[in-house]
TrEMBL record:
The keyword tRNA processing does not apply. Mg(2+) binds at residue 104. One of its GO terms (molecular function) is metal ion binding. The lineage of its organism: Bacteria, Bacillati, Actinomycetota, Actinomycetes, Kitasatosporales. The keyword Magnesium applies. It catalyses: oxaloacetate + H(+) = pyruvate + CO2; 4-hydroxy-4-methyl-2-oxoglutarate = 2 pyruvate. Homotrimer. This is Putative 4-hydroxy-4-methyl-2-oxoglutarate aldolase. It comes from Streptomyces acidicola. Its EC number is 4.1.1.112, 4.1.3.17.
Length: 193
């Protein structure tokens, strides 16, 4: 298990820069402002619009893991809502990333569970399966395997392969230092007449 930086410690945009701008999940957005997450991926691959696999995942997911779900990008059925988020909060899950839809956005924000999704819809899910747990998936066009580092903030979600976490964190911190120097230089600029 890696030592992942805590949620909000590193910006997703700079993490992506440190990975040559790879690893950003296309179209996956936070459902409420200020949502942040950081932790190892716990993966689920489910039939679009069906959340039976998510409920099964809660039987084995560990504290701090981020539930990452390939729901086929479906926007017609919400894979989670308030009740699933309550379960995630009770189990101290690190957050939820859905290549699919969610609902109960106000309640999710009130619970403080960081949820990132492709869409929002009030329509509830099917609960019949099939699904796959703890295997390789893709979310927003990015491959994800169990244990990969998942990081999210207001800009979206990035996935860092588990074997690259240490290097990417170090490179991200170097980039942040360079950005601080550029900000200071920008503040010294003088307008021309």
């Amino acid at each position: 298990m890696h030592d992942y930086p805590p949620p909000g410690a590193l910006p997703v945009a700079t993490v992506s820069d440190a990975m040559d701008r790879f690893g950003v999940a296309d179209g996956i957005r936070p459902l409420w402002p200020g949502a942040v997450l950081s932790g190892p991926a716990f993966t689920v691959w489910t039939r679009p619009g069906d959340n039976k696999g998510l409920h099964a995942a809660f039987e084995t997911i560990r504290r701090g893991e981020v539930l990452v779900v390939n729901g086929g990008g479906d926007a017609t059925r919400a894979l989670i809502g308030e009740l699933v988020a309550q379960k995630a909060k009770a189990l101290e899950v690190g957050g939820i990333v859905l290549d699919g839809a969610a609902r109960d956005v106000v309640e999710l924000a009130q619970l403080g569970v960081p949820v990132f999704a492709r869409a929002v819809t009030p329509a509830g899910p099917w609960k019949t399966g099939p699904y796959r747990i703890a295997g390789p998936i893709a979310v927003g066009g990015v491959p994800v395997t169990p244990g990969d580092w998942v990081i999210g903030d207001d800009d979206g979600v990035a996935i860092v392969p588990a074997g690259q976490v240490g290097d990417v964190v170090a490179d991200t911190r170097r980039l942040i230092e360079g950005e601080a120097e550029r900000r200071a230089a920008n503040q010294r600029l003088v307008p021309r007449d």
